Amino acid sequence: MESVEELRARLGEEAQAYQASFDAVDEAAASLLGVNRTDLRCLEILVGQDSVPPSRLGAALGLTTGSVTAMLDRMERLGYLTRTPDPDDRRRTQIRITPEAARLAWEIYGPIAEEGAAEIAAYTGDELAAIMSYLRRSRALQDRHRIRIAAMPPAPGRR
C-alpha cells in the first residue's frame, strides 16, 4: 500500500496530466473551429447564456475594448456569434452564440459531458464531496497564483 506522501506525489502528477489533457482537448477544439484559445473561451461563456454584453466578455477574458471588438469581428465573420442592439438600451450591444456554433460546441463537448456524468455516477457522496473540495482548493490556489504572476514584472526582453 502506498504511503500518504507517495499518494500526494502521485496526485500532483495526475493533476498535471489532467490539466494537460484538458489543454489538449481545447487545443483540438480550437483548431477544428479555426479559432484561438481566447475565442474558444468566448464561445464557452456564450454557450451558457442567452446574451452577454461585450464589456462582460472583455472582463471575463481579460481583454481591452479594442481586443474585444477585434475578437467579435473575427467570430462574427466565422458565423459563431451575432451582435444585436440591447432592447433596453439601443446604445448597447448584446452578443449571442449562433445556433450553428452551439451545435458545434455540443458536438465537440457534449460527448465528454455525457460520458463524464456516467463516470461520476460510480462515486459515493463522500467521494464526490472530497473531489469537490480538492477542485475548489485547486482553483483557489490557481487564482491566487494567477494574480501573483500578473503582478510580476515582465521577463527581460518582454517589456
Can you describe this structure?
- The chain is mainly alpha-helical.
- The protein has 3 domains: 1-33; 36-97, Arc Repressor Mutant, subunit A (Orthogonal Bundle), CATH 1.10.10.10; 99-150, no CATH class.
- The protein contains 6 helices and 2 strands; from the N terminus they run ααααββαα.
- It has helices at residues 4-33, 37-47, 54-61, 65-77, 99-120, 125-150; strands at 81-86, 89-97.
- The chain has a two-stranded antiparallel ribbon.
- α3 (54-61) packs across α4 (65-77).
- The longest helix is centred in the N-terminal third of the chain and has 30 residues, at 4-33.
- The radius of gyration is 19 Å and the shape is globular.
- The termini are far apart.
- The mean pLDDT is 94.
Query: What is the CATH class designation of the largest domain?
Result: Mainly Alpha
Structural class: mainly alpha
Major sheet attributes: 2 strands, antiparallel
Contiguous uncertain segments of 5+ residues: none
Shape: globular
Determine the fraction of residues in helical runs and give it as a percent range: 55-70%
The H/E string reads HHHHEEHH
Strand order of the largest sheet: 1-2
Architecture of the largest domain, according to CATH?
Orthogonal Bundle
Assess the beta-strand content as a share of residues: 5-15%
Radius of gyration: 19 Å
Overall mean pLDDT: 94
Into how many domains do the coordinates divide?
Answer: 3
Query: How many β-strand runs?
Result: 2
Distance between the termini: 51 Å
| CATH homolog superfamily of the largest domain | Winged helix-like DNA-binding domain superfamily/Winged helix DNA-binding domain
Number of helices: 6
- Looking at the structure, the CATH topology of the largest domain is Arc Repressor Mutant, subunit A
